[in-house]
Design a protein that fits this description.
Layout: H1 9-45, H2 47-58, E1 59-61, E2 71-72, E3 78-90, H3 98-108, H4 121-131, H5 133-139, H6 141-148, H7 154-164, H8 167-173, H9 176-189, E4 197-200, H10 206-214, E5 222-231, H11 239-242, H12 257-262, H13 275-279, H14 281-284, E6 290-295, E7 301-308, E8 315-318, H15 322-353, E9 367-373, E10 380-388, E11 394-396, H16 400-403, H17 413-422, E12 431-434, E13 455-458, H18 459-464, H19 468-478, H20 494-505, H21 532-540, H22 549-560, E14 564-566, E15 571-575, E16 585-588, E17 593-596, H23 601-616, E18 618-619, E19 624-625, H24 629-632, E20 640-650, E21 653-664, E22 671-681, H25 691-705, H26 717-726
Helix pairs in contact: 1-2, 3-9, 5-6, 15-25, 17-19, 17-20, 17-23, 19-21
Amino acid sequence: MRRAKVKSLEAINRQTLRARINIIISVIFFLCLILIFRLGYLQIVQGDEYQEEIENAQYVEINQSVPRGEIYDRNGNLLVGNESRPAIYFTRHRNMSTSEIMDVAVELSEYIQMDIDTISLRDKQDFIINNYPDEVSTLMSDEYTLLQDGNISRADFNEEFYNRADEDFVDDILSEEDLNTLGIYVEMVNAPELNPAIIKNEDVTEEEFASVNAALDDLEGISTGMDWERYYPYDNTLKTIFGEVSSPDEGLPREMLEEYLAMGYSRNDRVGKTYLELQYEDVLRGKKEQVKYSTDKSGKIIGQETVESGEPGDDLYLTIDIELQLELEELAEHHLSSLRELAEGVNARDAVTGSIDYTIIPEYLDTVLLVVQDPNNGDVLAMVGKQINEDGEIVDFHYGTLTSTFVPGSSIKGATVVTGYQEDVLEAGEVMLDEPLRFSGDNPRTSFFNRNSQIPIDDQEALMVSSNVYMYKIALRLAGLEYAEGMSLPHDITAAGQTLRNGLNQFGLGVSTGIDLPNEATGLSPDFGQYPASNYLYLSIGQYDTYSALQLSQYVSTIATEGKRMELNLAKEVRGSNANDEGPVLKTFNPRVLNNVNISDDEWQQVHDGFYDVFNTHDQSTDRYGTGWDAYHELEPKAAGKTGTAETFKDGNDVFNQTYLGYAPYDDPDMAFSVIFPNMPYTIPFFPAQYFGADVVNKFYEIEYGQEEKAPFDYDLDWFYPQLEYGDY
């Protein structure tokens, strides 16, 4: 029998080792194979994607501020421009620590002086914590011991310091040099990475600018350049309408942050905040410079390349005529101050004679609003608002033309008449009796020109003499009723009220004018309340809903053009920016018809004749005058329009809102206007504010067509006071 071979222990060990080595080699080979495949996948399949990410990480749309587009009037006069100014910038490299930033701030403080008045208490406290440990430990000795022993946290220690270190404490410790450094540091520490932030751009002296320039090699991240700010060649004229631009510190408005970020803005971008600057942000904003940065491993910038140059914003040309605007502002101030003085003069004389039975409070007479437009295309040529403040100074209130609304009175009666035509409750030339209306359980309702009689008048004369009764009867017919003495007022006027309001809306009353400005007020259209029928009748004569000067201007323009309601607009065209001349036209804002008010030619003729008579007619046979005859009948060219006087209250006292609307020439209008004098004295005759409208027409044709200059109306107490004594109309 053969003896079996037995492997030695050494042989077994060698075999085991070889097996293990083979396994290890296989694993290493397999891992290398995976690595090769992974590297190949990353390089071949995803290589372009990662390369793009690397490139994109180096491209930064920097906030090196480019000028906004400028704003001009219709004739090319600069209204809002840009004024360049030297600025000091800081670009924070990636991974830059706060201590490194502080070092740069200390160095830069040797060259520039900062405004230290805006430094917050918290920033001062943090500066002291980091730089004055002895003073901190002295103030907080017990807490400092607890901190050293680990019994309170650094956060709790700091919080207690914030509570105890008041303004007096920090001001005693910090020197002027400390505060200057801190002012710089506060601006620098908030700078985003790789995006130049303005450290100082106000009151940078030539010496500061030159010294920083000379030391740039020693000031890490610091650079110099030019910034801009808005300037206004005509000072405060229309400044509120132009709007505001956010500051570099303010950046994007908080309420619009997400919207702007979604459009690609940066948080510290300067944008339009109000009115035209906001409305046309997409036009006026410039295109920021795009830069490619190169950084080393630590994140420090070692080079940069301009990939795309910045461009200023496009220029906006307005419909405003600045020469007309300025002249009308001067007129508005003249009339407002003169009427205030007239009221004061009446009171002074009455204190001696005691012959006037009116409560006249001159301080209430503090506002005038005016809009002038081209009725044919909706161009707003001038918008003027003036107020007398508590110090007796006249200040601008231009935005009041679109944000303030008032009960206008009889000036809207043209819309009531047209609504009657459209609803087939009134015929052109129809005669009705103007008479005291006596309803069951109600006080008699009359027209101002006729308190007691029965006078037959047609629609044309109803507009001329401003008949309340004629409008009331139209309103009753809209509710399906004919007037009969002693009748009860209707209980349900829901449908009729909506019909009448729709009729007013089609002229722009109670709805948006389409003006290219934010925050336009459309007025109040309240429920008819506890006495619906009574308030409904008041609506028909302009004594219930409220409207703005812009709405009233659009309304009278719609009448002037026989029913074509044009969208109001301030923007005329957009031009490319050109430093030396007008740039190319990029966009024109064409006139837009919002709606047409449709009635027959005969009906329009009645309305136009009525508006003409308001300004120009004295009926010799009846000795009745148009309500605007005194001020307007001598105008050349002849104008047409409507007056309004609304009874209202201020501080519990009776006052009038006086409105004057018109257009000229009456037969082929190229201008229309609306005037509102709110809170005028409650007197008979009315305070003579209508002369302002006549002066507006004269001034327009002087500016636009070179007509002879005429002096503004001169308010004479000796002329007016006797009329108040006898209540002349």
